[in-house]
Amino acid sequence: MLIDLQVVKGLNVCAGMDIEQATSFFEQCRMQRLAAGAVLSSPQHADPAIHFVRAGELAQFAGSGPDALLVRTLIRGDLVATSAIVDPDGRCHTSLRALKPCTVLTLDEDGLDRLMALHHPVVANTQEELLRSEARELEVRQTVLARFASGDAPPRPSSPFAPALRSLFGPLSTPEARWTPASESSRLLQRRLGLVATPVEDLVAVLSTRLEARAVARGEVLQAQGRAASAAFVVRTGKVGRFVRSEIKGHVQLDVLTPGQLGGFETAILGGPATASAVALEDGVVLRIRLADLAAAVTERTPEAARIRRAMLASLSGWQERIALQLYHASIASRAVSDGEVAHASAS
Question: What pTM was estimated for this model as a whole?
């Protein structure tokens, strides 16, 4: 593929690369030219690939059809992973459509694997861009889901949100929360993007003396929802539960972190106050790391830092979606109980 320095400068992931490194990256990609309105990817035809916008404008939608929700617009230099958003059934529900004539470089799984084996600098750059991209996507979807996650009635069919949400999560009246920490969607996402769980040893190797071992007792609060967070943590021993407040059912448990798993990294990536509370479910030890130290450490060009970045992306993916789904299904179940009590009282 013929390239020049202007092309290299136009892609964010090529930052700091020389022409030889950029050429070896481009050789793993295939170039696609799209006419305005052309569909690059849809829920019915999605593959685990990363797309880099070389020229033009590309739009990402949640759902499909005329009622699809616009997530964001991508311009020259941006990237998107078609499999980065999945529902609890493991199906991809993003659509990519050219708003203007567009040129896209597509990197598939095999190409990414080859670049990772070569420790190519574009891999670390891509992972950092994916983290930022994922945060933006989830923030938009969280805004939409927040309209009914607090216990409001589901959107009526006339609502512009209803069709997109149906295509994302199935029937809105389903009372059971289908997400589990070990769901197939999580495994699918990790397999598609080459994400792996990060062992504690990677963090120790990268962060060295910046990790603070801390003993925690059962019931101790490591992170409080709504409060500013200054540190993330890794579970060394014991278990930590993550909870989110619900006006309907009090505190709803989202998942359980076991040894080697990351906590508080969502706040580090998304910014703002903690989106959930972390509470020790049993006595144990956590490795605490200040967010400022974490940000400095994981940008290092080492295999360990790269694995941590991938694990951070895996941890972030589906996090806000999981919160909204759990709250929404809790509100559905609560309304079903209330409706049953009213019906019983009326019958009496």
Answer: 0.44
